[in-house]
Design brief:
The protein is mostly helical. The protein is 63% helix and 1% strand. It contains 22 helices and 2 strands. The protein has a two-stranded antiparallel ribbon with strand order 1-2. Helix 14 runs antiparallel to helix 15, helix 14 packs across helix 20 and helix 15 crosses helix 20. 41% of the residues are buried. The C terminus is likely disordered.
């Protein structure tokens, strides 16, 4: 079980990976602004802060476009159902997997005059917290565009007053801008933003709730599925194959639990890789290949946040290391790579070969095993490979049946 504070660190790392590129720390900024406004308005600031961090988790499939083209996104996506439903998707994910019933997340695109979505609520039918996250969201987007300076931001806030948001909430944000003249600078820069987040968190209590690690992992899995379904399905299959191998070699219960979690999350760092690269049908350019390699480091960064997850983070992150030292990102050798990682590596290679990819079709089981034996024999644990060969029929049948 994670404490809420430990989980919060994982979530912050995860949403930071979602927000690719300089000046695109959207979810972190919205969480910060929401939390500060929540404090000033006497709301449950912890609830509003977490809601702000997670408000767009259901939009992860379109997130890159949202953060890269902030001035035009709402017009371009106004008829896009995925966009219009993302508040509800975010709300349901947070409720089902994190056990937080935050209606504010579902309401962050509802507007005072009834012109918002997904339900077209208006006036007092929208919670104050929903308005707070909503105005923080809209404020953050205009604040990090080069076309909006302080005067333009203030002008926009005045236009929103009594139309998009209640006057008392707009007034509070205007007062915050008068009192905190560095805010517009700091939401542009990750270092300054992190300092502000830690300052806000120091005033809040995060040790009063425990979260199931399985629920948290499932939450991340669904988030990745929204961005790139293949990666999520691949992770499910790698976890399944790894369990079969682990059972066959007699791993104990503790090791099996660590194997399942590490296999399930081994590609979580791909949340930071542009989808266009994940689906590219041709060879990657050198700079693109570097981004792809970095997904292992991103996996480590997301998961390495507490004593409970340090071992898991390392095991998951080095699944592309090779026993002969030719792998990445660190070029680890035989004695450096844990047995559990070797299982995941073999399962990862096997599933990748037997799956349809953007650049080729799937190999048969026999073809995949032959390729592994010829091309990976110095890179993988050969004893585990012998175990995989004995399981091959059952694996193929069960995967077809399950997926």
């Amino acid at each position: 079980m994670f404490t809420l504070r430990e989980e919060l660190f994982i979530i912050k790392n995860f949403v930071r990976m979602m927000s690719r590129g300089p000046g695109c720390n959207h979810a972190l900024s919205v969480g910060l602004i929401s939390g500060i406004l929540g404090e000033r308005l006497g709301l449950n600031a912890k609830r509003i802060y977490i809601g702000g961090l997670l408000h767009d988790i259901g939009a992860i499939g379109i997130f890159e476009k949202m953060v890269s083209e902030p001035l035009f996104v709402e017009k371009e996506l106004e008829d896009n159902m995925e966009f219009k439903l993302h508040p509800e998707v975010s709300y349901r994910m947070v409720k089902e997997f994190l056990n937080f019933d935050f209606v504010e997340i579902n309401e962050h695109h509802e507007l005072f005059n009834g012109s918002g979505f997904p339900a077209g609520k208006a006036g007092e039918d929208i919670s104050t917290g929903g308005y707070v996250i909503g105005i923080a969201d809209r404020f953050e987007i205009i604040s990090r565009t080069k076309l909006y300076g302080l005067s333009e931001v203030r002008k926009a806030l005045k236009e929103w007053c009594g139309t998009l948001y209640p006057a008392f909430i707009v007034d509070e944000l205007m007062a915050l801008l008068r009192e905190d003249k560095r805010l517009l600078y700091d939401i542009q820069l990750l270092i300054s933003l992190e300092e502000r987040l830690l300052d806000l968190e120091s005033r809040l209590v995060f040790n009063d709730i425990s979260i199931s690690d399985n629920n948290l992992f499932r939450f991340f899995s669904i988030a990745i599925a929204l961005k790139h379904p293949y990666t999520q399905e691949h992770s499910e299959r790698v976890c399944y194959i790894s369990r079969l191998i682990g059972d066959a070699i007699g791993l104990d219960n503790e090791s099996m639990s660590l194997l399942e979690a590490s296999a399930y999350l081994h590609d979580i760092g791909k949340i930071a890789v542009p989808r266009g690269l994940l689906d590219k049908p041709t060879s990657l350019m050198p700079h693109e290949a570097r981004l792809m390699v970095e997904h292992t480091l991103k996996t480590y960064e997301i998961l390495n946040i507490s004593r409970n997850t340090k071992e898991l983070a390392f095991i998951a992150a080095c699944h592309h290391e090779a026993l002969d030292g030719s792998g990445y990102p660190l070029g680890l050798g035989y004695d450096d790579i844990p047995l559990i990682t070797r299982i995941i590596t073999l399962s990862d290679i096997y599933d990748a070969l037997t799956s349809v990819r953007a650049y080729r079709g799937a190999f048969s089981v026999e073809e995949a095993l032959n390729i592994i034996e010829k091309e990976f024999k110095n890179k993988i644990d050969l004893e585990l490979f012998e175990t995989l060969k004995k399981l091959k029929g059952g694996i193929g049948y069960e995967l077809r049946k399950s997926y």
